[in-house]
Design brief:
By secondary structure, the chain is an all-alpha fold. The protein is built from six helices and no strands.
Length: about 130
């Protein structure tokens, strides 16, 4: 039963949607809070001038994941992005909150890598294209 196409495609859809939405909404929110996010990045030692790239990455790749278009590439890029963000912003393991964010990001990276391995499933643009 767990190997059925319906279970597989439902699982892949339910994996893609929340992760894609999380990244797309984070990118969109950074547009509205641009100055504050840029200042925070600078304070953490990451050039605030990179914020447009961060927004494009989160919003663009998040939307690709939601649609299931070029899903494996989008998930792989987001996994790398998440690991970089984890290193620069959540690597203070002496802080309990940052430790939680650190492991949350590792879990998200694991989910993204599972999507890289499995693809988007039939209920996606990739699935409709036979990819």
């Amino acid at each position: 039963m767990l190997n059925s196409p319906v279970v597989r495609n439902t699982s892949l859809l339910l994996a893609r949607l929340p992760i894609g939405f999380m990244f797309a909404s984070a990118g969109f929110q950074k547009i509205g809070g641009y100055a504050g996010v840029q200042k925070y990045m600078d304070a953490m030692g990451v050039p605030g001038a990179l914020l447009p790239l961060v927004i494009i990455t989160e919003l663009g790749l998040g939307l690709l994941l939601l649609a299931g278009f070029k899903t494996r590439y989008a998930a792989l890029a987001l996994a790398g992005f998440t690991l970089l963000a984890t290193y620069f912003f959540h690597f203070n393991l002496a802080d309990q909150t940052q430790t939680l964010f650190f492991f949350k990001n590792l879990a998200i990276t694991g989910g993204l890598l599972a999507i890289v391995g499995a693809g988007a499933g039939a209920w996606s643009v990739d699935g409709a294209r036979g990819e």
